[in-house]
From TrEMBL:
Residues 22-234 form the Peptidase C83 domain. Pfam families: Phytochelatin (PF05023). Residues 1-29 form the signal peptide. This is glutathione gamma-glutamylcysteinyltransferase.
């Protein structure tokens, strides 16, 4: 059965695409070719997946507060800015003022993140410094089934979000570790939608749950632990 894309979903996608296009125009990096195993949200099939999804409660607020990372190492900062602003319903937090919080700066400075990025545990601590509840899951502490269940359940609920830390080359992207929000899940194809914050490289993409799981079940040299995902709530 062919699902028609609702007008609201179409408008949200168009707004998101416009934001990505403006970001891409101002960025030095050029958009990269998308590997065949990933489905762009800008494609007809990508739009149909979003329209048919029963687990996409997070997509509208994440799209509304979406920002492109302002520094090559700021994928985590941009992702945290998105979910915290979405939880609060405002745009007070930016990538420029994220580290102005004293508690945040005691965990990591803007300069240290720009120099080396962040691992999953640092991501969790930085989020907590902005007074949100955080549950950190390393891949070694879960499995594919648990990962799928926890994330899909979260995506059905409002006012909580998921950030995933994965190895890009494991799913065919370039190249190292990355952090972005997960915005939706399609059960029929077993795919998650990643709102990719380095939008000058790639659009939001649908990726198979098993492939995404394999990409988080990789060792991050910063800390020597596996990557994973974070659940964020007020």
């Amino acid at each position: 059965m062919v699902h028609k894309v609702s007008s609201k979903v179409n408008l949200a996608i168009k707004a998101l695409i416009l934001g990505f296009a403006l970001s891409a125009c101002s960025a030095i990096a050029q958009p990269l070719a998308l590997p065949d195993n990933l489905i762009s949200i800008t494609s007809d099939s990508g739009k149909k997946l979003l329209s048919a999804s029963q687990s996409k409660t997070d997509y509208p607020p994440l799209s509304e507060y979406f920002v492109t990372q302002s520094h090559p190492a700021y994928c985590g900062v941009a992702s945290m800015t998105i979910v915290i602003n979405a939880l609060h319903g405002d745009r007070k937090l930016t990538q420029d003022n994220f580290f102005d919080n004293q508690k945040t700066n005691q965990i990591a400075s803007a300069l240290s993140i720009q120099w080396r990025g962040m691992n999953l545990d640092t991501l969790g601590k930085l989020l907590e410094s902005h007074n949100v509840k955080v549950q950190v899951y390393h891949a070694t502490d879960t499995n594919l089934s648990t990962f799928r269940d926890l994330v899909t359940e979260n995506l059905k609920q409002s006012n909580n979000f998921v950030l995933v830390n994965y190895l890009r080359r494991s799913i065919g992207q370039e190249s190292g570790g990355h952090i972005s929000p997960i915005a939706a899940y399609d059960r029929s194809t077993d795919r998650f939608l990643i709102l990719y914050v380095a939008s000058y490289k790639y659009p939001p993409v649908w990726v198979k749950a098993e492939e995404l799981w394999q990409s988080i079940n990789t060792i991050d040299n910063d800390g020597g632990k596996t990557r994973g995902f974070v659940l964020v709530s007020p």
